[in-house]
């Protein structure tokens, strides 16, 4: 069938009339198994982050691989997964004390671990908590986003002491998201970041263990968890993007294109032979505005076909060139352009699957099954 290149999706592709996020269940489950096996091999607790997929069904695939504790990015997400039976949830975002009423309701259903980075949050929680919570202190290992650096040892000790005096809070250790690993461009560069992070974890433990005893350290970025070797000083991992991966992770060195589990199917609505471009129904409200440089071109995604149950990029000259609200413009090589006509579907691998998935809200499997994400009710 001209223009349709996804072998496992041929039947459902016939019914697609608008931008649709396709999810390859086999690839996703393979990604989950691989990460779960790596955690077990390294003696690590596996607390995957659910922010990428935000789906109870994908959560069940994780549960089937022995996962019992999860990580989320908001109270809203914690509420959603608690409603689907998860009972050990870390909210990996600096505690927002304005949400204390919702946190209290959440603790009636699940064991909740909060990120507490300042004394004010401790004071408010101690006064307002109705049920006990666990707490991590967030450590900034180089990303420069949130948390305390290991150089702020006096501040860390003061915060630990405050937490230990709070009867409703059980301080269990430290959490870090080494977001600076996203600046890597090879597995070796990822390993360099990873070694820096694990060294900081060991230094922190060495400086604190005589005064505070043993505690856990959890790290949570997909590049280091995917490619890093050697986890001495780390007790748990909580990567999230690994379930789907994306072009950004390929560029970083975290994965191969064949590991990407999601792709956007978009109708071709016009063709422009004079400039070798396709107009598609698929814009910023579907993909997000996340972009990356590919062969010195700003790209919002790469066109791909599916062969042997994984995605294969046509060529780096066929890329999503620009986005407006509903429109997308795909710049093509001559060979690829000639494979499409108006009415066909083209599949695009996203730059950042987390944002694309969040915007789309549902996934379509190869058998036509629709998987839903968090509803707006949460």
What does this structure look like?
The protein is of the alpha/beta class. β3, α4 and β4 form a beta-alpha-beta unit. The protein folds into two domains: 130 residues, Beta Barrel (Lyase, Ornithine Decarboxylase, Chain A, domain 1); 220 residues, TIM Barrel. It contains 13 helices and 20 strands. Helix content is 32%, strand content 25%. The N terminus is likely disordered. The strands form four sheets. Strands 1, 10, 11, 14, 15, 16, 17 and 18 form an eight-stranded antiparallel beta sheet that branches. An eight-stranded parallel beta sheet has the order 2-9-8-7-6-5-4-3. The chain has a two-stranded antiparallel ribbon with strand order 12-13.
Shape summary:
elongated
How large is the count of helical segments?
13
Number of domains: 2
Instruction: Give the CATH topology of the largest domain.
Output: TIM Barrel
Q: At the first level of CATH, what is the class of the largest domain? A: Alpha Beta
């Amino acid at each position: 069938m001209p223009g349709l290149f996804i072998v496992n999706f041929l039947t459902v592709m016939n019914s697609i009339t608008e931008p649709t996020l396709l999810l390859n269940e086999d690839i996703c489950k393979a990604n989950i198994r691989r990460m779960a096996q790596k955690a077990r091999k390294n003696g690590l607790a596996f607390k995957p982050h659910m922010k990428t997929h935000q789906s109870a069904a994908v959560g069940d695939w994780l549960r089937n691989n022995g996962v019992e504790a999860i990580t989320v990015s908001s109270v809203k997400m914690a509420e959603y997964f608690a409603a689907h039976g998860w009972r050990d949830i870390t909210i990996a975002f600096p505690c927002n004390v304005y949400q204390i009423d919702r946190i209290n309701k959440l603790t009636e259903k699940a064991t909740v671990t909060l990120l507490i980075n300042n004394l004010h949050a401790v004071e408010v929680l101690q006064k307002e908590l109705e049920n006990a919570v666990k707490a991590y202190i967030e450590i900034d290992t180089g990303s420069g986003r949130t948390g305390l650096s290991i150089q702020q040892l006096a501040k860390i000790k003061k915060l630990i002491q405050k937490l230990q005096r709070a009867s409703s809070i059980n301080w269990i250790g430290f959490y870090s998201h080494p977001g600076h690993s996203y600046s890597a461009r090879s597995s070796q560069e990822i390993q360099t970041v990873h070694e820096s992070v694990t060294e900081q974890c060991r230094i922190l433990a060495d400086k604190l263990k005589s005064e505070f005893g043993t505690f856990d350290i959890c790290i949570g970025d997909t590049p280091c968890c995917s490619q890093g070797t050697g986890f001495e000083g780390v007790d748990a991992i909580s990567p999230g993007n690994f379930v789907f991966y994306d072009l950004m992770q390929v560029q970083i060195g975290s994965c191969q294109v064949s590991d990407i589990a999601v792709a956007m199917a978009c109708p071709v609505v016009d063709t422009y032979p004079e400039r070798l471009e396709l107009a598609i129904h698929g814009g910023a409200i579907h993909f997000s505005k996340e972009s990356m440089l590919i062969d010195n071109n700003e790209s919002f995604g790469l066109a791909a076909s599916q062969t042997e149950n994984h995605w294969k990029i046509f060529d780096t000259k066929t890329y999503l060139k620009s986005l407006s609200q509903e429109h997308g413009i795909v710049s093509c090589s001559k060979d690829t352009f000639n494979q499409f006509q108006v009415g066909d579907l083209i599949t695009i691998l996203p730059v950042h699957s987390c944002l694309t998935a969040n915007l789309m809200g549902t996934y379509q499997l190869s058998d036509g099954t629709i998987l839903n994400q968090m509803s707006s009710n949460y």
